[in-house]
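Input:
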Amino acid sequence: MDKEYITDWFRGLQDRICAALEGADGKGRFERDAWERPGGGGGLARVIRRGNILEKGGVNFSAVHGETPAQLLGHLQPELGMGSQPGLRPEGATLADAPRPGPDFYATGVSIVLHPYNPMVPIIHMNVRYFEMSTGVRWFGGGIDLTPHYVDEEDARYFHGRLRAVCDRHHPAYYSRFKAWADDYFYLKHRQETRGIGGIFFDHLAPDASTSAEEIFAFVRDVGDCLAPLYTHLMRKNAGLAFGEPEKQWQSLRRGRYVEFNLVWDRGTKFGLDTDGRTESILMSLPPHAQWEYDHRPEPGSRERATLNWLRKGVAWA
Amino acid sequence: MDKEYITDWFRGLQDRICAALEGADGKGRFERDAWERPGGGGGLARVIRRGNILEKGGVNFSAVHGETPAQLLGHLQPELGMGSQPGLRPEGATLADAPRPGPDFYATGVSIVLHPYNPMVPIIHMNVRYFEMSTGVRWFGGGIDLTPHYVDEEDARYFHGRLRAVCDRHHPAYYSRFKAWADDYFYLKHRQETRGIGGIFFDHLAPDASTSAEEIFAFVRDVGDCLAPLYTHLMRKNAGLAFGEPEKQWQSLRRGRYVEFNLVWDRGTKFGLDTDGRTESILMSLPPHAQWEYDHRPEPGSRERATLNWLRKGVAWA
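Output:
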């Protein structure tokens, strides 16, 4: 199982997800915007705008390669014990200081964020990715998390139940480990709020004596494949629910929080913007509109207040 | 000239600026929201919403003190040569590792961001601040920058001309040095755009053999005092200009860029959110509404395109 095989599978996943979402939306179409990375590789952004249900969203595929960015080597060293490997830069070193050539990397993945019109339909995010370096290091990462503007407990249990079932097919410890990881990752420290009801998150899943690359990739494929049925179910179930101006207002404020998470805390976004990643692909995650109101506090007893009460770590949804 | 004197002057500046802005707005009033910092000190947020001209804005005063945050000591060490001082933490050390007690700090300042309704009126930002530590270190910082939704060349020359006059009264090198510093600071690397037409920015201005603390503070006072006449002039001049839906749309997209700068690149915002600063005061800089559109590109020859062409470093406005 080499990187071409993984890349092809991710490319196919993008197609299947776009087709499923177009089917559920009934009007919007995912446009195609292919791009090249100056340092090597490129991607295909697929963007939906002003659909029936989906107001703005992206399903992005990329496969990039080249010399490993210094910022990434700095981050990886403690974890990979690469400090003494020849050709690797010491943390804090700049490109100009570095012995050349550094190792090459190859990274491929699919990233999705979907923002619906109807505040009763949640925002969803999914990412699956594979990374390898010419040093022989390789790993998978990914995650899915749901950000309802209004938390519906039945939907939340359904969502987490499906993710638990996916995880349980591969390892009995995966769900609890990756659910806790999502709670910690999708967290706005400055608001003391989780982004939404969480989901699963995992990174640097590398083959070892107990788990082969094939087994990890089988899990990653299952995660990728669960997005479309999960989200089209929520689209169909909730897109007809009534809402008015107060709910749209609240949706805009929650979208503001989504912006805050992505721009302040999301490591992938920060890394991408800091290493000359493709800005339009990275920021496709931002909502069509957002609002900020000074010190906004929902009324006690309101549905908005009830939603805030769910935005905490450690809720046992499944 | 001690910290109480500086603090009182900043407190008075907040009052005078709010009064001048209320006068020019004609309807909006700056509400008062006093807050305390758990570690010591506090502030007074003054917030305007839904005025005649000002849609959302804040004029914030704060005076906080306590044990110096580890994150700050880490940043300061190379600059201040504090590496070997007893009681200071090595970079990367956590609070738990640290020898106690660290030095105390005292910081006071006024921060302003104003978002007008009319896209023909620019967004303005101003900050003046003073910082000292029990180690004897003290400095001033500050800046003013203007972010027009549509760059008006006459307004831009007026704005920079006034800033140059303020700087020139204190040091012949200040304007060119601080103008270049603003170009570098208020820059969205991931967009290769400046935030607006810049202004002046300066930090860590410490007294030395050639310049006393009194002289630096006199400059900082002049910077603080020029905000109200500068901005009320632009409010009165432009708030009556006609605009329609396309201009409001463009304003929303430019406000999205303002959000991107503040959340991704602004060091003050990042530091505040990372050190448990008061979130509502830090994020008062965010606009009331913002929009994001995938890969939006203004038409060649349009006024929007002309504005983008001005958003670069090194324009000689004055």
